[in-house]
Amino acid sequence: MDWHLLGISFITVFLAEIGDKSQFAAIALSGSSKSPRAVFFGTVTALLLASLLGVLAGEGVSVLFPARMLKAIAAIGFALIAVRLLWPNANSSEESEEAL
Where do the H-state alpha helices sit in 1-89? Predict the structure, then answer.
């Protein structure tokens, strides 16, 4: 087993999940339920399944494209999401003006 890669994966996902909306959903669910253990096992299972799907998709895509190209595609995707989040949406500003 590649312990270095295991550690990097753990730290990356752990830090990415802190303050994530899924964590807030888990907080809300455990706060409103009488069985926080069920919420814990449900959220752990969901995170495991989501991670498994991501790993399988990454493994499948890596067969088609070289790693360097995948990193470039991921970087472009993140940049597009960032621009989309920072760029004001013309439709939403029109809708908010109509609501006023």
Answer: 3-17, 21-32, 36-64, 67-86
Give residue-wise pLDDT tens across range 18-27: 888 888 888 8
44 closest CA partner among 14, 82, 1, 83: 14
In the predicted structure, residue 38 carries a pLDDT above the cut 70: yes
Quick one: how far is CA 85 from the chain centroid? 16
Mean per-residue pLDDT, 51-65: 90
For the CA atoms of 33, 37, 40, 41, the dihedral, rounded to the nearest 10 degrees, stands at: -120
Q: What pLDDT is stored for residue 95 in this prediction?
A: 62
In sequence order, what DSSP letters do the residues of 49-61 get, joined into one string?
HHHHHHHHHHHHH
CA distance 97 to 94: 5
